[in-house]
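Re: that chain you flagged

S.,

Sorry for the slow reply, it's been a week of failed gels. I finally had a moment to sit down with the sequence you sent. For the record, here it is as I used it:
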Amino acid sequence: MLAPGTLLQQRYRIAEQVGKGGMGAVYLARDLRLSHDVAIKETFFQDEAYRRAFEHEAKLLARLRHQALAKVSDHFVEGNGQFLVMEFIHGEDLGSQIQRLGKHFASPQALPMVLKWADQLLDVLHYIHTRPIPIIHRDLKPKNLKLTQNFDIILLDFGLARGGVTIAVDSSETTTPDMASRKIYGFTPPYAPIEQMRDGEPDQRSDLYSLGATLYHMLTGTLPADAMSRMARLINGNPDSLRPIRELSPHVPEPVANLIQRSLSVTLEGRPRNAREMREEFFYASHPAATPSMQVRAPGFTTPSALGDPSPAAPAAEQVPVGTLLRMLTTGSPIRSVAFSPSGDLLAAGYDDHTVGIWRISDYSHVRTLKGHTSSVRSVAFARTGGLMASGSDDESVRIWGVADGASRRQLRMPGCSVESIAFSPDGKLLAVGGWGSAITICTVDGDSIRILDTLPVPFVHSLSFSADGALLAAGCYDGAVYLWSTADHQPAGQLSGFASFIYSVAFSPDGAYIAASSQKSVRVWRLSDRKVMETFQGHRGPVRSIAFSPDSQMLASASEDCNVRLWRLSDGTMTAPVLEHRAGVASLAYAPDGRLLATGTHDGRICLWQL
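Prediction finished late last night. Pasting the structure tokens below so you have them in one place:
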């Protein structure tokens, strides 16, 4: 084991060990030359043939370029160890999330996300399976999957640190007979196909079995029966021990359930032939209205050349100097949410490390850290009156804090609802809470007390916002719609649609004229008077995670995973220049009450304060 502080190649400083298996270890390290975090995998092999096989695999992995794969950047030998350097993906792996939030993945609200991940995984499997030297992963399971900040999937661990050898060694490469004949065995029983468990020769259909088992686990909240025990029952004439998906989760569409069950066939011949075929079938299974006869095509398959072509940039806008970076505050943890106090003298930030940070704007000093949550703090909000603020977390709770002393006043438990967004009404008397649950919770806040007043049924909520007069509540949901509610009688007040995917952020303009929402790479603005689309802003090259209107309602700011914030004029629909550039994806933004300052929070743990 490498100790923290160990320096490799005079470039990589080990921070900590983050994983270990029988055949290797994984470390978080700092690349001192490029000043960013990397993952370093070390092999425990001492046998020369295995060491050369590891080097061969490292070179193959370094050639891969796909948005669902971590990039390999270096390979070296130092002392008795061989090391592979690759992109470090922050966050919790999907296996840990399923253990913690399993019931949520098996809910109807999460179905669109699981289908999206299935499509992304089939895309990357098609990519690695069709390389000039095909690559079989052989260990696809939730533990080897991570989610980016915009909920896209990343496939990790190609077996170099633990598990089985994943590269099909081709005799056309420079290898020795000894290398080509040796194998290293490893698998995880609930996710492994029978041919892998019985020392058979896996092919691309083996990865499809593992993918099917992973999807089965997510959609049902139940581990699938392992292939060996299933085969034994079938040989003895007994029924298959794999329970049907719809028996456990009736909300899963029958065509989707049937396709996943096919991928879990104990025989290779019973599964889809390849990832491309399964992806096409999956598309039609999850979109019943789309059939080949209607000439609706499944999403395109990415290629290395396609990945290198950036999306078209927005048309050049008039060059007006509107943003200057005033200060950068380093926090040490990825930032999920930022909010100014009503007076603008304080800024709150919700962190991935389960805490909330309070900063004083006058001298940019850190005032205090609020502790109590046990998972990521997804949303923070100040009440306009009463000296209170609130925070919502993945730990299924909302906490009310005193702004003056930072004391935790009340805690509201939200069983079954990982909180994604909270919002105070303008008068500070109502607090809306939304997330993984199937409803928005409306609470009354009076001094130190908080009480549930009502629940409003909606799909999975990602963003909440009250109108400036407090008459309307908007919820941006994962079905691509914005739901509106009247706060006077808690009755539905209509929907705004037009997006095909998740709503990441929703906001009302302070003058009450507009409402805006973001989804994927675009932002749409509606007039509230007639609910007509006024503008659609495009130009970002990554998902737009947060939007905010300026206090005078003249501008709309949008923050994206493409590391940029763009400012749009509502008067003529043009973008001001220059773009506010960041070092990492931007997860949240907020205007100061006087409109002179914009705060942005990024995934690399920095708060940027921009003078406008």
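What I noticed first: Residues 111-129 form the longest helix (19 residues).

Talk soon,
D.
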